[in-house]
Specification:
Blueprint: H1 2-6, H2 19-41, H3 47-77, H4 82-104, H5 111-134, H6 139-158, H7 161-169, H8 171-187, H9 190-198, H10 204-207, H11 212-243
Helix pairs in contact: 2-3, 2-11, 3-4, 3-11, 4-5, 5-6, 7-8, 8-11, 9-11
The protein binds retinal (RET).
């Protein structure tokens, strides 16, 4: 018995060239640090910005917890933690849609805009999950449907209702909205690349050499922490203006 217990390693071994494992560790700590930063800075802002900063904190906190599990799952099984990945996304991506709504509330954004964005994001993620985990043979078709939902979100924020509200609000809100729009157009486009790297399809020859998990982990760090910082910066600028 004693010998048996001693033979179980407490910490899984990590190879020095395990880039997936490395990005899971770094991602985990970065999400934790970002969550602490957003939570602790919350009370230094005007009341009306506090919910936005709180949501930035929740997005990175939820990601930190999932990264904790994904880091472990990878270290022990050496497999993509697809399940945890999509549970994380189905919670955090709708919260990013809530961020758009919260900063546009000053211009009179309606809840219907928020629900439309949330609905589109859920369609994007559920169809992505079906292609990646359930019907892998038809990954290209599910990825295409997911991509259409993604472009629907891009349309709403770049040219549709959300764009109109941001223009009406003007000033720091418009600047922040524009930056978030770029995050969605460029930063979120990292994910379909990861998807094509990790699923079978016509695109294998183009992206097949990349590691799906490394691509997803880079995307998450840029988008979750970057998004939060844009909102943080908006709160800094707007609070400074209202105190002047
Ligand atoms: C914090 C996590 C974020 C911002 C995750 C975003 C995920 C996407 C934008 C995923 C998009 C996908 C497509 C557009 C097509 C292929 C399938 C997905 C789900 C990877």
């Amino acid at each position: 018995m004693e010998n048996f217990l001693a033979s179980i390693p407490l910490v899984a071994k990590m190879a020095t060239n395990d880039y997936v494992g490395f990005t899971f560790f770094v991602g985990c700590m970065a999400m934790m640090a970002a969550a602490a930063f957003f939570f602790l800075s919350m009370n230094s802002f005007d009341r009306k910005w506090r919910t936005s900063i709180l949501v930035s904190g929740l997005i990175t906190f939820i990601a930190a917890v999932h990264y904790w599990y994904m880091r472990d799952y990878w270290a022990v099984n050496g497999e993509s933690p697809t399940f945890f990945r999509y549970v994380d996304w189905i919670l955090t991506v709708p919260l990013m849609c809530v961020e758009f709504f919260l900063i546009l509330k000053v211009a009179g954004a309606k809840k219907s805009l928020m629900w439309k964005l949330i609905f589109a994001s859920v369609v994007m993620l559920v169809t992505g999950y079906l292609g990646e985990a359930v019907f892998r043979d038809q990954a290209a078709v599910w990825g295409l449907i997911s991509g259409l939902a993604y472009f629907w979100i891009v349309y709403i924020i770049w040219f549709g209702e959300a764009k109109k509200l941001a223009t009406e609000a003007g000033g720091a809100v418009l600047t922040a909205h524009k930056t978030l729009c770029w995050f969605v157009l460029v930063g979120w486009a990292i994910y379909p690349i990861g998807y094509m790297a990790g699923t079978p399809g016509w695109y294998e020859g183009i992206f097949g050499g990349l590691s799906m998990d490394v691509v997803y982990n880079i995307g998450d760090a840029i988008n979750k922490i970057g998004f939060g910082l844009v909102v943080y910066n908006l709160a800094v600028v707007a609070t400074a203006k209202s105190e002047a």
